[in-house]
Amino acid sequence: MENLQSNTNDLSFEKVWLMFQETDKKFLDTDKKFLDTDKKFLDTDKKLNKLEQLFTSQWGKLIESLVEGDLVNILNKRGIQVHNTNERVKGFRFGRQFEFDIIAENGDEVVVVEVKTTLSADDVKEFLEELKHFKEVLPRFKENKVFGAIAYLRVDGNCDRFAERNGLFIIRATGNSASIINAANFVPKEY
């Protein structure tokens, strides 16, 4: 006990202040190391995000190409005799920015195709909203019959049936082609 009191008495204000300064310096060094580590993680996150965006973009283009390659054939089999397709039609008109993945047409009829890797109910809802404004943003088609189609590789739940109930063709991308999977008696909605 005597030894403990002796050590306590040896601590002067100056000694305690020096100990605080040393501890503070160690905290600052540790903070700097954490900041450097955080910066490295942020840089890595940015690089990973760029790679993910590149992969997603390229994957989407691959699915679009797969669908577009068979589109004329599968629509012709369903009685819509299209002969021309355009990919990634985009622009800005009347305060609206628009982008349509594929447009197939024959001068009288137009099929607007939204392509998704994984189709969700929100995708269907957004596309239905875009179709409402199709003739407004692309007035060259205002005299045409316009139909919609959703193409996908995978589907969440039953949202493909939701799309069908809303009059959309459902196109399933498979292997090296695509096919319409609506019932044979399906009648598409005109937009």
Task: Give an account of the 3D structure.
25% of the residues are buried. By secondary structure, this protein is an alpha/beta fold. The chain has helices at residues 2-10, 13-77, 121-132, 134-137, 159-165; strands at 84-93, 96-105, 109-119, 145-155, 169-174, 177-180. Strand 1 (84-93) and strand 2 (96-105) form a beta hairpin. A 6-stranded mixed β-sheet has the order 1-2-3-4-5-6, with helices on both faces. The chain has one domain. The protein is built from 5 helices and 6 strands, in the order H-H-E-E-E-H-H-E-H-E-E. The mean pLDDT is 83.
* Terminal CA distance: 93 Å
**How are the strands of the largest sheet arranged?**
1-2-3-4-5-6
Shape: elongated
Helix content: 40-55%
Can you tell me the number of structural domains?
1
What portion of the residues fall into strands of 2 or more residues? 25-35%
What structural category do the secondary elements indicate?
alpha/beta
Largest sheet: 6 strands, mixed
Outline the fold blueprint.
Layout: H1 2-10, H2 13-77, E1 84-93, E2 96-105, E3 109-119, H3 121-132, H4 134-137, E4 145-155, H5 159-165, E5 169-174, E6 177-180
Parallel strand pairs: 3-4, 4-5
Antiparallel strand pairs: 1-2, 2-3, 5-6
